[in-house]
Fold these 2 entries.
Entry 1:
Amino acid sequence: MVKGRHASSGSTGFYRDLGLMVLGILLVGAVVFLILYLVVGDDPPEALTSTTTTQVVTSTTLDDPTTTTTASTTTTVPQSTTSTVPVRPPSEVTVAVLNSVGLPGAAGAMTSVLAEAGYQTQQAADFEPLQDPSRLWYREGYSAEANVMLQFLPDALVEPLPDEELKPGANVVMVLGSDYEG
């Protein structure tokens, strides 16, 4: 005597149910994509894709302040903005040079070089601990100027000023480190 569904001799019911389930999932996915296509259309919402162009202009020589290099990058971000970072002329940048390498007169000599290049300078001083490599620390808003100063200290790291109380009044603090050769 045979009772119920489980009494069938084949297993075709399992495969039929599995096939119907996969077909149902595909059908639901197709309906969702159709609805999205009808609502959104061919153009994605502006909040999902937009273009930002950042332009950095820096002075590349001390002899000819009109020579500039422009670098542009384009990225996808939530909103579209355009900004230009101006580079102040040397006469509007105050620099303090610190000697962490222990080479006598190194900070004073670099201070003279920077003054001849038109920078406002503070009194040179010693600094501990030894920095490896040299550093160009900048106050907020003076990153571009610190990067221009890499021409005087090419292997230095350019970083935000780690201690706001260090050399008050200086926009950029140049720390001569173990890589400095004078």
Entry 2:
Amino acid sequence: MSEVSSNEILSNPANILAEKMNADVLVVNYEILPPFDFHVMGVVSSRKRRKNVVLFLTTEGGSADSAFRMMRFLQANYERVSVVVAGWCKSAGTLMCIGAHELFIGDLGELGPLDVQIVKADEMDEQKSGLVAEAAFEKLQQEAFKFFMGFVRDFGASEYRVTLRTASEIATKMTIGVVQPIFDKLEPVTIGEDFRSNRLAMAYAERLNTHSRNLKRDRALDALENLLSGYPSHGFVIDYKEASVLFKNVSVLTPEMINVVRHLGTDAVLPRSRRNDQAPKLEFLSDELVQQNTNEPGTTDSEGNGDRKRANGRGNGRGQLPGDSEERGRPESSAS
């Protein structure tokens, strides 16, 4: 069987990174939804693994269930999980980052808030934030109070002599008349579903962080609370500087990581999706580490190779996603 030479190993930037961090180098670029999550776990399971993993993650987001499932699986199979965010990594991608022991964020890298996106009723492929109902309640409460205080002040400043009690009663009736039609349009069942969805994201994040312990959570700052409800929009940009406020272990990309990003091209920055009719990008970039069959560690073969060899095949497990067509389900090879 032919061996991969040292020059061939070093010519692959992912192998250099793998050697430095004693880690498998894995790229995942797609929507985090079933059955893609099971496909990722299958690819990892079929590989002879190093003790650590460096995950280059690019995604628009997806299912909190799938994100938790994938990151929990990586935590169980590797001693240390590092996530590289060179570009877009939103929503469920942020949830996966919470499970990483260390984050590496590039100049174009950005996370997003953790509020769960819920599919709109009677809408195709459109979603709304799970915090919309909560924001609506808060705004209505503020406006109702403003209406009430404004009515009381107006009566008090008028030429008519009325007591504070009378002014308050009149202001209450007028405020109810203004805001009640708006409150009547809010559906209690929908509000309850949104609340449960956001509690789901919190529960998953807490469990992932129990393993990674990378979120800052103390009296001064609860990073999880910030990610769940501390940002004004779902698309808010959480760049390296902002992430440094939320996470304990955040670093810029190393030179070896930058070389891998250049090797990947747009796949390291721009997310693939079904809407654009794109196939998932799922691949181990580093060559697989294979232990030589020997009873004496440190022995060499006739060619002078040590007791560790690298397989030429990367063991990517490229295959069709369950339920997908052959063209859409096959992860593409790495960019040159």
